[in-house]
Amino acid sequence: MQQMKLPAHLQSSWQQLGIAPEVLQQKSLCVFAEATELVDVETTFDGRVWQLTPEAADAWLRMQAAADADGITLKIASAYRASSRQVELIQRKLDLGQQIADILQVLAPPGCSEHHTGRAVDIYQPGGPVVEEAFETTSAYAWLSQHAATFGFTLSFPRNNAYGYVYEPWHWCYQSN
Ligand SMILES: [Zn+2]
Q1: Whose CA is closest to 50, among 134, 124, 136?
Q2: C-alpha of 2 from chain center
Q3: Scanning 4, 24, 76, 152, which has its CA 20 to 30 A from the CA of 47?
Q4: Strand ranges for 6-152 from DSSP E
Q5: How far apart are CA 28 and CA 162, in angstroms?
Q6: Mean pLDDT score of the chain, rounded to an integer?
Q7: What are phi and psi for residue 43, nearest 5 degrees?
Q8: D-alanyl-D-alanine carboxypeptidase-like core domain spans which residues (predicted)?
Q9: Degrees (nearest 5) of the Cα angle 37, 77, 70?
Q10: 12 Cα–ligand 1 center, Å
């Protein structure tokens, strides 16, 4: 699933965004293979469909149901994302005048986002903070801390993680075995 070398098809998008190839080693990043098989998991109020791999989708739905039974509603803020989409997200921030080094603290370079795998989900609780550190103060986060591992989901970016990313209490990844 992971490799340490930047594949040729990503080199041009990195160059276009001004990301040096050395960033891969400097930040100890991995290149993730993009999911090839995806299923629809959740549709947002504005008609956007979130997808995960069949295995991750199954685990997510079981975890969501278990949380629901405990009175906790878990919703998806982001799931599968293609590397081409990652290019768009970074480009949008560059267009707003942000520096690439700052952008890379919150967004992975194309090819290096766990969301490419179709196994990562950004989770929120309706009415609560979305993709913000304050998510850790929600009852949803407390529930996940206690139960997510049972369903195969782990927190990818704890405080002071080795990748130089900000702390992401909302980002959980299903680890296939
Ligand atoms: Zn995420």
Answers
A1: 124
A2: 15
A3: 152
A4: 31-32, 39-43, 49-52, 75-78, 120-124
A5: 7
A6: 94
A7: -115, 130
A8: 51-175
A9: 100
A10: 24
129-172 tens-digit pLDDT: 999 999 999 999 999 999 999 999 999 999 999 888 889 999 99
Quote the ligand 1 centre to 143 CA distance (angstroms): 18
CA of residue 171 to ligand 1 center, whole Å: 4
Whether 161 and 169 have beta carbons less than 8 Å apart is answered as no
Extract the tokens encoding 161: 């993680």
> Beta strands 31-32 and 39-43: pairing type?
unpaired
Record the tokens describing residue 4, joined without a space: 């340490």
- Across the chain, which distance is largest between two alpha carbons, in Å? 48
Domains of the chain: 1-33+84-112 (no CATH), 37-80+118-177 (3.30.1380.10)
The owner of tokens 């994302």 is 81
CA distance 57 to 118: 9
Between the CA of 120 and the centroid of ligand 1 the distance, in Å, is: 7
